[in-house]
Amino acid sequence: MIIDAHAHLSNTEYGNTEMYLKILKAEGISQGVAVPGAMLDVRKMTDYITGKSKPDNPIPDNKYVEKAMKDHKQIRGFVCLNPHDKDVSKQLEDSKKQGFKGLKLSPLSHQFSFGSKGVASLASLCGDYGFPLYSHVVYNPGASTSKFVQLAKQFPKTNFIIGHMGFGPADLEAVEAARKFKNVFLETSTANFLHIEETVKKIGGSKVIFGSEYPLAHPGNELDKIMRLSIKDDQRDQILSGNIKELLQLK
């Protein structure tokens, strides 16, 4: 079985559910874990990363992902929430009732610190709900790899997934955190082949999770990187589905 553990779905011509499902079928990927997309126009991502542009209205369309989950049994969903919202804890509670399986945070969209009270509240609740907490990290003191790892240390009951293997081409701090802490995992989408392979050599396959970053990246291309790794078959199986199945408590 192969599970794409990180895709963005949105009601757009370039990232909708129907397109995604066709790709999964064509590539032999059994299931996908989706988060809301289109808060940022991924076709202009460099402008956002460099600060040249800011998102117009970064409100996550969780309803679109919820509908995808309900209409298609092979799609699981992570709710995306803004930690600045006053009722964010209630939003997370509601998302559990709606069938979501985890939490996605977006510091690039919502401009928060991993050290904020809102994030701490969400991280604590994720431990209570059995929700993994997924986020990418950015080149910003408040949302850096170090800050995210500190959050993971603060809430050992919660599992934390660092998107894209951390920041930049080879985030050794993220790798060391995954090696050292039981509740820190690394997701592979858009990461480079060499860094993924070297990471598995250093820490094994039990802390690495395959994801695609659809629609910015093609699931087939991202899968090809994992299939070409010079690693043991059991490690590849962990990366492709075993680890995310365990985190989401899937049968």
UniProtKB/TrEMBL annotation:
InterPro entries: ACMSD, Amidohydro-rel, Metal_Hydrolase. Signal peptide: none annotated. Keywords: Lyase. Pfam families: Amidohydro_2 (PF04909). It comes from the Bacteria. GO terms for molecular function: carboxy-lyase activity; hydrolase activity. Residues 3-249 form the Amidohydrolase-related domain. This is Amidohydrolase family protein. It comes from Halalkalibacter suaedae.
